């Protein structure tokens, strides 16, 4: 609870106590009026001020104006009737302030989630100069500078660890509770907290282009992108408020005139003015005007806590209509890193075959060579290898433990006169053949490994009601179909160039009809299709800057399961919006009719306004809860 909320709560408590005490104070006449007026002004001075300012600024028809007219009118009626009953006017204002406090509390809860993201802004960066650490503003650090991050400090700028090892808390960005270990060579992103050891990091971009700066910009700008529901409510309020004010004026004037002119009866001005004031309080649209934007705001805040950054409530609303989800393969469903996935040994044990191949490739920086070395545990003794020769487009030959080893493709084997045995079968991935001392020794299959959560992501989307899941990739068809089978994706389109992906998504949009098409990708070549899809989802932690800029939703931990979580969250937000809209309009319409007929007094009006607002606001706060 912030300071403003505490002050408001104290005002409510004091006014409530004073109102109760006045019921037992034996005063009448002008003294009684002054005491009640003092309590009324104490609890409602800010509403009266806003109403007066709205009139002076030419915008009088808002909820402050309605509340001021209704409560001042209640005092005026009590004076006209000489009843001395001023409780109603104060109680209406008091309960309205209770509703305003609940609204402020709910917004505060939503802002806390956004605020947790805003707290990732780093205060400083440490640069070593003349043997001493000097604190500078992160915006002053150039790309390529080595910075030092002490335990407990936030990493200010993206970069790679040069030296040191530490646990890094990424929860503020990704929602993960388990810290990650950062070692030399690992890339770290800004906004995370260094927990245990000193890290020296070489920055690879300036602060303005770093992850933390981009996130803060996304969060700060998200409120500008409003949903269709919010736009409708804004237009509705502009028409609705003048309409009900006119209706209330007609209710106060026309029935008394009709009684006076046509029925020659008592006009009953006070009765109809009271009904008009009741009508005004009931008609106040604040429950809708407040709860619907609050629902989307809470939804964006709740998504941010889970590492899902949504750039605006319009994209949150669009996600609820997702009928087709399209995945890029490499880096989205797969790790984007080559790994040994299969060893078919012939003349040697599999472990020995891999060891000989890794030692033969030890001098190469090619991704395939590095995958062999990683699969061997990285334990390479280069003294065992001699006469390394790299043959372009073929592979490598070398002496390993005085054995002649050839590692490469089928062309290399043919050049060496080595026959490949029949019946090896197809292999989904890059096939590396190994020959030892002129004889075929086996083959190693290298492919891009599937992310651990990809299969579950596909199942979760199905459970969330997404009817069509498609995978697009530029990879060869055999590899793409293998990944599709492994993940349970029946619709796979392979060997596509970036322009081909855009055309495929355009066709899917046409086929989807009213349903929205979501595309998830991470590479720079995905930026055009991310922009073309109805909703573009970028894998943020490892994704390219271009993809993140083009996307509408950013997943900070590259977990495809978060897409299903975002869809569920958006649908829950829309469900809450519909619940609040139907509930509010139904209750208000019923109370308006009852108020016009004189069957509902000011207390019913208070429930129809403040009570409905509090219920709608509390319902809206449910959007903050986790999406699974």
Low-confidence stretches: none
Task: Label the CATH architecture of the domain at 311-333 and 453-567.
Answer: 3-Layer(aba) Sandwich
Q: What structural class is derived from the secondary structure elements?
A: alpha+beta
CATH third-level topology of the domain at 311-333 and 453-567: Rossmann fold
- Seen as an oligomer or otherwise, the chain set is single chain
Largest sheet: 7 strands, mixed
Instruction: Compute the number of helices.
Output: 20
- Classified in CATH, the superfamily of the domain at 311-333 and 453-567 is HAD superfamily/HAD-like
Residue share in helix: 40-55%
Please tally the β strands and state the result.
Answer: 22
Widest β-sheet, arrangement of strands: 10-22-21-20-11-18-19
Strand content: 15-25%
Gyration radius (Cα, Å) is: 34 Å
What general form does the structure show? Answer: elongated
Distance between the termini: 27 Å
Mean model confidence by pLDDT = 80
CATH C-level class of the domain at 311-333 and 453-567 is Alpha Beta
């Amino acid at each position: 609870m912030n300071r403003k909320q505490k002050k408001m709560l104290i005002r409510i408590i004091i006014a409530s106590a004073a109102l109760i005490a006045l019921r037992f104070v034996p005063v009448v006449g002008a003294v009684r009026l002054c005491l009640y007026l003092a309590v009324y002004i104490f609890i409602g001075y800010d509403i009266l001020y806003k109403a007066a300012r709205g009139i002076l600024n030419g915008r009088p028809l808002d909820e402050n104006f309605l509340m001021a007219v209704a409560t001042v009118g209640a005092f005026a009626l009590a004076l006209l009737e000489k009843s001395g009953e001023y409780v109603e006017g104060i109680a209406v204002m008091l309960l309205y302030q209770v509703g305003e406090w609940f609204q402020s509390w709910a917004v505060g809860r939503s802002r806390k989630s956004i605020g947790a993201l805003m707290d990732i802004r780093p205060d400083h960066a440490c640069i070593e100069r003349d043997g001493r650490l000097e604190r500078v503003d992160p915006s002053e650090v150039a790309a390529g500078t080595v910075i030092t991050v002490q335990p407990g400090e936030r990493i200010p700028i993206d970069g790679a660890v040069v030296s040191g090892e530490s646990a890094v808390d990424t929860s503020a960005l990704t929602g993960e509770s388990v810290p990650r270990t950062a070692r030399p060579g690992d890339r770290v992103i800004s906004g995370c907290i260094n927990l245990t050891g000193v890290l020296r990091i070489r920055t690879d971009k300036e602060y303005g282009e770093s992850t933390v700066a981009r996130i803060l910009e996304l969060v700060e700008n998200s409120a500008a992108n409003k949903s269709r529901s919010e736009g409708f409510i804004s237009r509705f309020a502009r028409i609705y408020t003048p309409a009900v004010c006119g209706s209330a004026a007609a209710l106060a004037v026309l029935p008394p005139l009709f009684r006076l002119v046509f029925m020659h009866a008592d006009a009953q001005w006070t009765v109809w003015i009271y009904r008009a004031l009741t009508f005004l309080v009931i008609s106040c649209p604040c429950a809708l005007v407040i709860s619907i934007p609050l629902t989307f705001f809470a939804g964006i805040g709740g998504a941010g806590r889970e590492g899902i950054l949504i750039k605006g409530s319009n994209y949150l609303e669009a996600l609820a209509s997702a009928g087709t989800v399209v995945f890029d393969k490499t880096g989205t469903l797969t790790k984007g890193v080559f790994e040994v996935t299969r060893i078919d040994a012939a003349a040697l044990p599999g472990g020995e075959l891999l060891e000989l191949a890794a030692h033969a490739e030890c001098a190469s920086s090619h991704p395939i060579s590095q995958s062999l070395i990683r699969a061997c545990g990285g334990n390479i003794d280069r003294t065992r290898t001699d006469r390394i020769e790299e043959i372009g487009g073929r592979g490598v030959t070398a002496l390993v433990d005085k054995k002649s080893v050839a590692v490469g493709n089928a062309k290399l084997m043919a050049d060496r006169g080595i026959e490949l045995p029949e019946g090896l079968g197809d292999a989904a991935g890059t096939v590396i053949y190994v020959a030892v001392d002129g004889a075929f020794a086996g083959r190693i299959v290298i492919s891009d490994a599937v992310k651990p959560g990809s299969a579950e992501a596909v199942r979760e989307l199905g459970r969330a009601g997404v009817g069509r899941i498609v995978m697009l990739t530029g990879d060869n068809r055999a590899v793409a179909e293998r990944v599709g089978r492994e993940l349970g994706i029946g619709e796979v389109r392979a060997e596509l160039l970036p322009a081909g992906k855009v055309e495929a998504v355009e066709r899917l949009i046409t086929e989807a009809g009213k349903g929205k098409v979501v595309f998830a990708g991470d590479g720079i070549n995905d930026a055009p299709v991310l922009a073309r899809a109805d909703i573009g989802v970028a894998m943020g932690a490892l994704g390219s800057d271009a993809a993140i800029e083009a996307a509408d939703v950013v997943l900070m931990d590259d977990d495809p399961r978060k897409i299903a979580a975002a869809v569920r969250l958006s649908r829950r937000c829309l469900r809450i919006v519909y619940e609040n809209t139907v509930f509010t309009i139904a209750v208000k319409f019923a109370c308006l009719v009852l108020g016009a007929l004189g069957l509902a007094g000011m207390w019913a009006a208070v429930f129809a306004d403040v009570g409905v607002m509090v219920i709608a606001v509390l319902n809206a706060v449910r959007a903050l809860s986790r999406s699974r």
